[in-house]
Specification:
The chain is α/β, with parallel strands linked by helices and about 260 residues long. It has helices at about 15-35, 50-60, 80-90, 100-110, 115-140, 150-155, 175-185, 190, 205-210, 215-220, 225-235, 235-250, 250-255; strands at about 5-10, 10-15, 40-45, 65-70, 95-100, 140-145. α1 packs across α2 (about 50-60).
Amino acid sequence: MSKISNYDQKEVFYDEIVARSYINKIQKFLVSRMKKANANGFIVGISGGIDSSLVYALAKSVAPKNTLGIVMPINGMTDSDLKHIEELENNFEDKFRTIDLSETFNSIKKNLQVQNKLAISNIKPRLRMTTLYALAQENNYLVLGTDNADEVFIGYFTKFGDGGADLLPISKLTKGEVKFIANLLNVPKSIINKKPSAGLWEGQTDEDELGFTYNDLDFYLNNIDNPSKLKKYLNSEVIEKIEFKHKITQHKRDKIYTVKNIK
């Protein structure tokens, strides 16, 4: 981890000096990768959640005139998400582009006639990925992913969906660190304090779906090399759930598997 988080037993404290230093590191990373790719800027899918808001803020800080935020509703968005997106626009004096993918999604869903709820839901982030890459290629921009360290570790992202990106600027930050840094970068408080949701279906929240809290997962990641401390402060069932999700989603973090060369 980035060492922004420090724990006294299970209570977490964040080091602002380290956090600001890490912000600078991310900014240099973005600029360096943009130059190496000979790209003109960045594109970010905006959901109204904290991860996409922070990634947008980071990109905007290094490419203020060449960062494109894209809102991609599918069969509507909640009033709160729309309100939070507007607040983000106001804070950064920007206007996002909205591309409604409802008709496309409904057509694919009808033609496929898939019954599995998660399979249907995962069409949404894959459509958004396709949209972002089309616009990125049109503008010679890089697609920025919004997965944080928690999501990467347990594979809480859609393969070839929100997991499809050119760069992952916040993939070493836990959820708590994302919130802390978002506070430093003018992300609206309403976004920082809202319940995390992947927006896969109505009323869905990350923590309800996962069966444990981000606070627990943050603690696990920051103490992963100290099993005795994990056992002392985390429920054994929570540890098992985290480790099981990590194990079964390894394929999401690996490169595509191939057959070995013929000898």
